[in-house]
Each structure stands twice: as structure tokens, then as C-alpha cells.
């Protein structure tokens, strides 16, 4: 699952970078999205930020939730009024990203994620600090 997360996050971040900075061929029609324009600039910021977080596996579920909502908005507000089906309205990318991020919300980041590094340190430190006696006392039931 972590390879899926990395690929989806990288592709999503590339869309944001293209729109914001004009790299990789630029945004739709080339060039960049003017700062502060609704909804293009905000979508590009979400794409770059959430895509980067998903790529790294840092706050994956929250970032994927935000990204999924952004793509659902893009599909229903921009593409769906043109036609019902994604193949006819050009919304395949938005629909695929929306569902890919929904999947990541429920499955999580996988093994190779920065979240796992931070979680491992906190969990390991908490269990190693207790002595053998403290563990026995905690496990022994109290009888009256």
C-alpha cells in the first residue's frame, strides 16, 4: 500500500507544482495560476501540500481526506455539469484522484511512512521506561 500512496502523492503534488510554479509544462494551457484566484490557486495549493504530505506519509489520512474533497469538488463543480460520465466531461483524473484518496483515508499510509517513525519512537519510549516490577504490579489483580 505504501507504493500506491507514494505514487498517488507524487502525481498529485506534481499537478500542484505545475499550476503554481509553471514547472513540468505548467498548469492547464501552460503558465501558472494567478495568486489568490478561486478555485484554481487554492486547488493548486491543496494539490501541492496534501500531495507532499501523502507522498511522505505524514498526516496521511487527514491530507488524503482534504485532497479527496478537493477533487470531488473539482469533479462536481467543473466537470460534471458538462456531462454525466467522466470520459465525456474530461473528469477522469479528478474522479480517480478523489477515489484514490478515499482509499488512503481508510487504509492509512502503509509501512514506509514518516507517521510510523514518530509513532514507533513514542510507543517504544513509553514501554521501555517501565521497570519489571511496575509491569508486574500493573498486571497483578488486586484482591480484597
Describe the protein's architecture and organization.
The protein is mostly helical. The chain is 69% helix and 0% strand. It has helices at 2-21, 40-56, 60-79, 86-89, 92-107, 114-128, 132-139. α1 (2-21) packs antiparallel against α2, α2 packs antiparallel against α3 and α3 (60-79) packs antiparallel against α5 (92-107). The protein starts with a helix and ends in a 5-residue tail after the last helix.
Kindly list the characteristics that best describe this protein:
mainly alpha; single chain; 7 helices; 69% helix; 144 residues
Structural class: mainly alpha
The shape is: globular
From N to C, what is the helix and strand string? Answer: HHHHHHH
Helical residues, percent: 55-70%
Low-confidence stretches: 122-130
Rounded mean pLDDT score: 84
Residue fraction in strands = under 5%
Distance between the termini: 50 Å
Please count the beta strands (DSSP E, at least 2 residues each): 0
Tally of helical segments: 7
The Rg value, from CA coordinates, equals: 21 Å
Strand count, sense and barrel status of the largest sheet are:
none
Protein topology:
Blueprint: H1 2-21, H2 40-56, H3 60-79, H4 86-89, H5 92-107, H6 114-128, H7 132-139
Helix pairs in contact: 1-2, 2-3, 3-5
Short description:
With about 140 residues, the protein is mostly helical. It has seven helices and no strands.
